[in-house]
Design a protein that fits this description.
201 residues; Rossmann fold; 6-stranded parallel sheet; 7 helices; globular
């Protein structure tokens, strides 16, 4: 079964990426996970957690942290541009970058592939596969907006994680689930039900 590439870059809102990984594994997806150099630092500063740098230990980290043994996890080093997912001949279901820093977004938009995340994004664009980018920044400046426009024109989807108030969330977890599930609406995944807009009654 083809895998889905999940990339985490050095921006806030890592909790949404974590929940997305958990939900995808529970739906028995095969995941290729890449954590950028900056994302390691964000986890350390915001959560006080040092994610293992060794890839097998990192896969075990996700299993233990999420208490989830479903699906399949393959972790890749952020600068391993020789990884299988760096090649267009390696088929995937798509790629989601959550959260996506403006630096990563800008380099992808310019075709400048320095690390594995940027190379994988370039591959998904050139192969015409789904590429979903969830930017984390506020406010957007004109450069950010132009870069997002370039990526949309190249075939990517830009999906910022925005909570819904019409779903009347009662907890932060409900808000996180809504944002995580919405990222994958264009995929045919069996993810938990969320309170979607049903119209005015």
């Amino acid at each position: 079964m083809s895998s889905l590439v999940i990339a985490l870059t050095g921006a806030s809102s890592q909790i949404i990426a974590e929940r997305a990984i958990d939900l995808l594994l529970k739906s028995h997806q095969n995941l290729d996970i890449i954590i950028s150099k900056g994302a390691y630092e964000v986890w350390k500063s915001e959560k006080g957690i040092q994610i293992p740098l060794e890839m097998k230990k990192q896969a075990l980290f996700w299993r233990e942290r999420l208490n989830n043994n479903s699906g399949k996890i393959t972790c890749h080093k952020w600068n391993d541009n020789s990884a299988n997912i760096a090649s267009g001949s390696y088929t995937t279901k798509g790629m989601v970058i959550i959260p996506c820093s403006m630096g990563t977004l800008g380099r992808i938009a310019s075709g400048c592939s320095i690390d594995l995340i940027e190379r994988c994004a370039d591959v998904h664009l050139k192969e015409g596969r789904p590429l979903i980018i969830s930017p984390r920044e506020s406010p957007f400046n004109l450069i950010h907006l132009k870069n997002m426009t370039l990526l949309c024109e190249a075939g990517a989807k830009i999906i910022p994680c925005i909570p819904s108030w019409y779903s009347d969330p009662k907890t932060i977890d409900e808000m996180i689930d809504f944002m995580a599930v919405r990222l994958f609406d264009s995929f045919d995944f069996d993810l938990p039900k969320i309170n979607r807009w049903k119209g005015i009654k």
